[in-house]
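Cross-check.
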Amino acid sequence: MSKKRVDEGEGPITSINVTPLVDVCLVLVIIFMLIAPFAMQAGIRAAQTKAGAAVGIAQAESNVSVNLTPETVLVNGKVVAWETLPIALTHAIAKSKDKLVCVTATADTDVGRVVDVLDTSKQMGAKKLAIMKQGD
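Predicted model, tokenized:
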């Protein structure tokens, strides 16, 4: 009279356990949330001139103008040595109304020098930065 009894554990698995999948997904989400702020690159915001822009909102005399050529650096029309640029920028920005620094460079000026001027300007107190290209 013995009957063979089929236990529940011996049959095929017909359902999927999603708990480990959800756990792994939540851990990945947490990892991405922690890493995301470090993946953002720091940079300098700058206003770039547009083609055909003839007039600006701010007056040119109330801004700080930095002209770059491969040989010279001019701050508000005065030749400045590269070593004394931070001091000259500090004085010019202090006198500026809008704390706007307009960097104008020739096409053959090294991009690294332009970035150095933008970075130095920001460190010396500039609130806004603009990049312009001298006409050919």
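The domain at 47-51+58-133 is CATH 3.30.420.270 (Nucleotidyltransferase; domain 5). The chain has a mean pLDDT of 80. Passed to J.P. for a second look.
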